[in-house]
Amino acid sequence: MVKEPRRRRWSANDVPDLSGRTAVITGANSGIGFEAAKVLAGRGATVVLACRNPVKAQDALNTIRTATPEADVSVLEMDLNSLASVRKAAEALRAERPVIDLLVNNAGVTLLPYGLTADGFELHFGVNYLGHFAFTGIVLDAVLAADAGRIVTVGSNAHRMGKIDFDDLHFAEGYRPLRGYARSKLANLLFAFDLQRRLEAAGSSARSLAAHPGGANTEILPSVGPVRRRLKRVADRIPNPIVHSAHMGALPTLRAATDPASKGGEYYGPRGLLKMTGPPVLVRPSTASRSAETAERLWEHSERLTGVTYSL
């Protein structure tokens, strides 16, 4: 684990006042995205919930306003399954919000049967990675317009099992749900760290960081079929040393996004057993996720696949 000075546990109470700042969070209607949005709104940020389902997003907005009546929260409809939807949402956001202080690439799918996005990408790779690559690229000017804007991309411990096969990015052969998910999360980290390198090379004050929630108990965990649903109900009642709440799972994202001491290229996650639970600390990603050569090649493929070229 990366060493940092010993201090008391970092918590949501450490999030500074964010009045006058705008935060955009994808997948913010539930799970760690919702928990992060709730905290940011409570600290005064203007929060945009970028979500696929506008009904669920509105429910989340109402819940946040119940907790913080003065909260400035809005909904942006965006389906990461479709690049057309991503582009439409990103351009609308850029027109309405010329300055974005915090962009949190949080939305995702996990352990799905094999399927393709509207654009023909394997679902995990297309939704978790390529959709966010395109969205970030289109709104990047608004982040660069902020005073030290931040982009936080949410990864997973599963990235350590991921492999990038440039000859078969979309798993025409050998697909397994965990392989698809792990590849997408490795791609997320390669992107986050490569974006930081590119920001530095451009002399930008913006920062790109990454975080992972550990074993957060959220709706992203699949519960397909009656047997799995029953098992999940039982598991939810049993204390688990490697599973913590969605609120705790959101803390690494919040620290990466708001801690004044956080630096570009850092990776935050829980400090507890198997790095699955506990307060957020600096953690060490896999060696593969730090490969500048792989990241550059992936970036070239991503620009070609999405049609989005970054303005750096």
From TrEMBL:
This is Short-chain dehydrogenase. The keyword Nucleus does not apply. The keyword Oxidoreductase applies. CDD domains: retinol-DH_like_SDR_c_like. It comes from Parafrankia colletiae. It comes from the Bacteria. Pfam families: adh_short. Keywords: Oxidoreductase. InterPro entries: NAD(P)-bd_dom_sf, SDR_fam. GO terms for molecular function: oxidoreductase activity.
